[in-house]
Amino acid sequence: MKLKITYTRSVIGRPQAQRATVQALGLRRLHQSVVHEATPQILGMVKAIPHLLQVEEIND
């Protein structure tokens, strides 16, 4: 299973750890989307910042 992760809210005024998580997911601009495998590491990053992202499941 894969996840389509869309960056929906800005990190302005957010803690550095949340900024780093957004960057680690490969997101740079608002409304940008990336596709990642649903690994425990990716799921943990998504759980840390759900208020900044929109997540959709993509079945192969």
Q: Would you spell out the secondary-structure blueprint of this structure?
A:
Layout: E1 2-7, H1 16-24, E2 33-37, H2 40-48, E3 53-58
Give a verbal description of the structure.
The structure is a single chain. This protein is α+β, with helices and mostly antiparallel strands. It has one domain (2-58): 2-Layer Sandwich (Ribosomal Protein L30, Chain: A). The chain has 2 helices and 3 strands. The protein has helices at 16-24, 40-48; strands at 2-7, 33-37, 53-58. A 3-stranded antiparallel β-sheet has the order 2-1-3, with no helix packed on it. The protein starts with a strand and ends with a strand.
> How many discrete domains?
1
Q: Give the count of helical stretches.
A: 2
Helical coverage, percent range? 25-40%
* Rg calculated over all Cα atoms: 11 Å
Short description:
The chain is an alpha+beta fold. 30% of the residues lie in helices and 28% in strands.
Main features:
30% helix; Ribosomal Protein L30, Chain: A; 2 helices; alpha+beta; 60 residues
